[in-house]
Amino acid sequence: GAQLPAQMPPRVLIEGLRQTLGRVRDCRKQAHKRPRPEAIHELRKACKDLRHQLEWLGVDAEHVLYAELLAIIKALGELTDLFALDLWLRANGRNCPQAEVAAVQRALEKTYARTAGKLIGRCKVLLAEKPRKMAPALLAELGW
Q: What distances in angstroms separate CA 24 from CA 5, 54, 114, one per listed residue?
């Protein structure tokens, strides 16, 4: 993917990364406190922003944070897709067989119970350090 110019001032990079890490952390807290579809969606968007920043910084696909982010984004995406399908069926599914509507709702509840808490927990483990400390450490690790 695209990379940032090599001569960017480190303080700009650190501040940008701190803000993004902080947003992932805040969204994770919100999703943990009130795991509504909107909160899950916001967490996914914040994780995607972090992924893009890491790509611009030249992160390797083998990097543990990057690999973990990809897994979290994918799983949160599957969850938000189910939320969207469930909402659509509730609004438009009158002619849809009730058994199918019920099956979607069961799948959502099951996926939610199995996935959401674990993902939100994994996100916390992933960002174990405070954004202020984590940003410069990550940049140093990536060779900036």
A: 25, 13, 21
- DSSP symbol at 93: G
- State mean pLDDT over 17-24: 95
Averaged confidence pLDDT in the chain: 87
Q: What is the 3-state secondary structure (H, E, C) of 31-85?
A: HHHCCCHHHHHHHHHHHHHHHHHHHHCCCCCCCHHHHHHHHHHHHHHHHHHHHHH
Given a cut of 80, whether residue 117 has pLDDT beyond it is no
Contact 137, 129 (CB under 8 A): yes
Q: What's the chain's length in residues?
A: 144
User: Rounded mean pLDDT of 50-68?
Assistant: 91
Q: What is the rounded CA–CA span in Å between residue 11 and residue 23?
A: 18
